[in-house]
Amino acid sequence: MTDSIMSKAATMEIPINSNGDTGTLPEDDSLEQAAKLQWSLDEQVGSSRGTRDLQQVMVSGPNLNETSIVSGGYGGTAEGIIPTSSIKGPAVRYNAEFNKRIPVTGLGSNMHHSSSSSSMTAEELTRGVAVEKLETMKKWGLNTYKCTKQMISERFGRGSRTVDLELEAQIEVLRDTKRKYENVLRLARALTNHFYNMVQTQHALGDTFADLSQKSPELRDEFGYNAETQKLLCKNGETLLGAINFFVSSINTLVNKTMEDTLMTIKMYENARLEFDAYRSDLEELSLGPRDAVAMARIDAAQQQYQVHKEKYERLRSDVIIKLKFLEENKVKVMHKQLLLFHNAISAYFAGNQQQLEQTLKQFNIKLRPPGADKPSWLEEQ
């Protein structure tokens, strides 16, 4: 056994000096050789055990087909060589000193973390939008409920409402005036249509008289006189149509734009008044109830809402007063001009005073369209 150990030691223990040359063993130094042999055997056993532990630790490692891990020391057994093709699982670094597995994280984990963060950010954004919409719907529903309750209470005579008698009277006058002006506008348009048809009839009649004047020598003068008269009436009629159209356009602007704009502000004011009364009634009901901590918190919130709607109501009330004032001034100015135009044009036409009729149009800066200008050109029709 000693011979086999000595022969194995002779094959394994080949000392190398600093220059790379092999050293020589003294023949008579047997104790030193035996100590070195024992140390070499212990190192092989420890290395083999470390290799087994490392193989067990790295069983779940990655598949690296072209490399292998070899345990340290010469003369190790086959168990000291671990083919990496058999290693599966996440990559680890083996720390022999502490016998721990240290996971190796790379670019993939960073990308997964980044995508997770972006998805969480998008989810939070969506959740925030949904919460905001829910709060808006909640406020709208609460406000609608309070206003509906106040409206029903007012109609059945159980609820009180804020009334401005002077302003309410002005609003009623405006609505009545708008109805009457709409009737004037409707009649003026009807007059325009009828008069336009009459002018077109006179124009056709004048052309017929002129044609008969050429084909009836015995009645040439009579047909000629009537043709000239119808053409003159047709020309004056077109001038009058220009004046009436200007009158209709101005009344339409006053009724359907200026008055309508004021009425829209009045509608907003009335809605604000209803909301103000609804929150005022709510505050009054809460004030008559108990005064514990929860009730006081509700009263404070109702007081804030009441103040907000009160300011809105007063602001719109001021806007309505100002618009009514300017509307009245504008209405007087516009109607004074348009009624004077309508009177002078109608009087001049039926009096047969062509010069005065043309002067009336110049006075109000009305320009007549040339014949056929009402019809679009062939290029505009394409």
TrEMBL record:
Biological process according to GO: intracellular protein transport; regulation of Arp2/3 complex-mediated actin nucleation
GO cellular component entries: cytosol; Golgi membrane; trans-Golgi network membrane
- Cell compartment(s), UniProt: Golgi apparatus membrane; Golgi apparatus, trans-Golgi network
Q: What InterPro entries does the entry give?
A: AH/BAR_dom_sf, AH_dom, Arfaptin_fam
Q: Where is this region: Disordered?
A: 1-28
Keyword Phosphoprotein, does the record have it?
yes
Q: Does the keyword Coiled coil apply?
A: yes
Q: Where is the AH domain?
A: 162-362
Q: State the Gene Ontology terms under molecular function.
A: phosphatidylinositol-4-phosphate binding; protein domain specific binding
SMART domains, per the entry: Arfaptin
Residue ranges annotated as coiled coil are 299-330
Q: Keywords of this protein's UniProt record, alphabetized?
A: Coiled coil, Golgi apparatus, Membrane, Phosphoprotein
Protein name stated in the entry? ADP-ribosylation factor interacting protein 2b
* Record lineage: Eukaryota, Metazoa, Chordata, Craniata, Vertebrata
